[in-house]
Amino acid sequence: MKKILLAASAALLAATAAAQTDPVSRAIDATVQAGKASAASQERVNQSDDQTRAMLERYRAATWQAQQLRVYANQIEPLLAAQEAEKQSLQRQLADLDRAGGDMMPLMLRMLDSLEKFIALDLPFLQDERKERVANLRRMMTESETATAEKFRRVLEAYQIEADYGRGLGAERGQVEERMVDILRVGRSALFAVALDGADAWGWDAASRKWEPISRKYVKELRLAMKIARETAAPDLLTLPMPVAAAGAAP
Predict the structure, then answer these.
(1) CA within 13 Å, CB half, 223
(2) Crossing angle (nearest 10°) for helices 101-121 and 148-164
(3) 108 exposure class (CB count in 10 Å sphere: 0-12, 13-18, 19+)
(4) What is the pTM of this model?
(5) Which of 177, 174, 199 is nearest to 185 (CA)?
(6) pLDDT digits (tens, 9 = 90+) for 23-43
(7) Dihedral (Cα; 198, 204, 208, 210), 10-degree rounding
(8) Distance between CA atoms of 214 and 204, rounded to whole angstroms?
(9) Span 137-193, pLDDT tens digits
């Protein structure tokens, strides 16, 4: 029995060896290997194409961005040149002001005197803030470390702030006849006050320089105007008891 098994095994090994040396089998194996190599090569080509396309897209994007930057630079260059020229002009003007400091000081002091008188005669709104601004400027005039040009700029700024008060609406909290009120400023044309409980309302009489009672029917409109001034309500048409002269009545 063992001899039969050994003989069968020898026959199987011989058949396998013969198959491996068969030309047809070798050709099939070569074809399979070539196909695998071709597939791997194609995969590498595909990957290379993807990388090439990605690099091309990045190149195109970079080129487009560079073109846009050149266009922007060409547009902004004249503006930068103009700003630089303006800056140099302002620097020269400021230097001239510093050299003329001795002549400028009397002028600035006169301007502050005029501003102080104007505030005293104007409608009585934001009194503490406006008077403090002038007082701060007077203190600045004595500061040797502050350049003359800066002092003059601050004085002009104070004048501009006062000019801006003449435009639009303003609202603040204050007192009338020892009562807390909300005060409404209509440019420099009129000044109104409403008691916090809405029970009373007043208008400023510029001739007598005192508050005069006005009809309570205006309280609703005045409160709406105050909301508009504080930007908590949208602008709207208002009916207010404007002084005759300020309202533009014929003489």
Answers:
(1) 13
(2) 20
(3) buried
(4) 0.57
(5) 174
(6) 656 666 666 676 666 666 667
(7) 50
(8) 10
(9) 999 999 989 999 999 999 999 999 999 999 889 999 999 988 999 999 999 889 999
